[in-house]
Design a protein that fits this description.
- This protein is mainly β and about 160 residues long.
- The chain has a single domain, classed as Neuraminidase (6 Propeller).
- It is built from no helices and eleven strands.
- It has strands at about 5-10, 15-20, 30-35, 50-55, 60-70, 75-85, 85-95, 110, 120-130, 135-140, 150-155.
- A hairpin with a 5-residue loop joins β5 (about 60-70) and β6.
Length: about 160
């Protein structure tokens, strides 16, 4: 199987962060994935012990599509989590060392549904406001269930 990257960001120390999806098999779908490399391109062993981290949202398919770096170096990934016929905005916050920040959302993960339960919501990019709040943008199915609208979510960080 292929584990594609969707976005890249640079930390202030020169380390490279890539996000995408990983781990798809014939029995289960892929998960959010993040990889951190040193400035020379080698995997950073101080990030989740081997430079790679996977995060599951308890769904059929999860995909990190955008990444942003907060002022303290914390990595924010946004994308979607697909379960039982529909998808939601999804976000994770990885603290130092590549471990989920348990203070963010539900044990480091957040899912956001915008409209109809059967609709699809996809986050494609993230930005961090000066006050540390996270903004995710993508598309969302409106309440009418027809077509797509712009979807924007803002997440607080404690």
């Amino acid at each position: 199987m292929v584990d594609p990257a969707s976005d890249v960001a640079l930390q202030s120390n020169g380390k490279i962060v890539l996000v995408g999806q990983a781990g798809a098999t014939f029995r289960r779908g892929p998960d959010f994935a993040a990889v951190r490399c040193r400035p020379d391109g080698t995997l950073d062993p101080h990030f989740s012990d081997d430079g790679r981290v996977r995060t599951e949202f308890q769904g059929d398919e999860d995909w990190a599509r955008g990444v942003a770096i907060q002022a303290d170096g914390t990595i924010v990934s946004v994308g979607y989590a697909y379960t039982e016929g529909s998808s939601d905005f999804a976000a994770t916050r990885d603290g130092r060392g590549g471990r989920l920040d348990r203070a963010f959302g539900n044990e480091g993960r957040v899912r956001t549904r915008f409209g109809d339960a059967a609709g699809d919501d996809y986050a494609f990019d993230a930005a961090v406001q000066p006050d540390g709040k996270i903004v995710a943008a993508g598309w969302a199915t409106p309440i009418s269930g027809e077509g797509y609208d712009v979807g924007v979510g803002r997440y607080l960080v404690s």
